[in-house]
Amino acid sequence: MMDLHTHTIYSDGIGMVRDNVAWAEKRGLKIVGISDHIHYFTPSKFSAYINEIRIAKEESDIVVLAGIEANILENGPDITDEFRKRLDYVIASVHEWFGRDGAHMYIEYVKRAIMDDNVDIIGHFGNSFPWIGYPTEEEIREVLELAEAYGKAFEISSRYKVPDLEFIKECIRRGIKLSLATDAHRPEDVGKISWSLKMFEKAGGSKEDLVFSEYL
Ligand SMILES: [Zn+2]
Ligand SMILES: [Zn+2]
């Protein structure tokens, strides 16, 4: 299996890249992705990050991927072409706090990320809905249609327990890819994807519905 959303000391995690990889190996994953928060990086720190992941890739028996977690801001996700071309994949997540009745804004932000060429996966979609309110069915449908049209994936987040089962089923029905993700900030949490896997299986997903399924 896979865990495509993990953090290290390059952002707000507490482990090294190799610690995350070691736990992924221990838990029997086939793929682990490192995806630190983009706003922690200067260009030189980013180079060190890419280099450290490359070394981990070479040393490990499992597939180690270089990712990043970008923020979806008012004008779109903060991922640049320069960063994107050195990465295997990019997660884009809404981290802004919209307050009550903010679901409409949240949806608009996610749509901007889906339409961005540098984005591959939408992170923890809907994790703030319990506080900002839920989008309408129409808005959810628009997001799904756009993701289908642009070939973008959604992660199933064990940390936030999103998206819901209906949404995951609809992704599978439309051929929208999914990823399994812990959002681990401690190495020992890497690979604890049981909630994601359970939801994926309940929704009737099979290997081909996952991103990077060629490595599974
Ligand atoms: Zn996040
Ligand atoms: Zn994260």
Task: Lay out the secondary structure.
Blueprint: E1 2-3, H1 17-26, E2 31-37, H2 43-59, E3 63-73, E4 76-77, H3 81-84, E5 89-93, H4 103-114, E6 121-122, H5 129-132, H6 137-150, E7 153-157, H7 165-174, E8 178-181, H8 194-202
Parallel strand pairs: 1-2, 2-3, 3-5, 5-6, 6-7, 7-8
Antiparallel strand pairs: 3-4
Helix pairs in contact: 4-6, 6-7
This protein binds zinc ion (2 copies).
One zinc ion binds at residues 69, 93, 95, 123-124.
- How many discrete structural domains? 1
Fraction of residues in helix: 25-40%
Structural class: alpha/beta
Distinct compounds present: zinc ion
The CATH architecture comes to Alpha-Beta Barrel
Counted by DSSP, the helix tally is 8
Number of beta-strand segments: 8
Largest sheet: 8 strands, mixed
Gyration radius (Cα, Å) is 16 Å
Name given to the CATH homologous superfamily? Metal-dependent hydrolases
Oligomer: single chain
Name of the top-level CATH class? Alpha Beta
CATH topology: TIM Barrel
**Strand coverage percent:** 15-25%
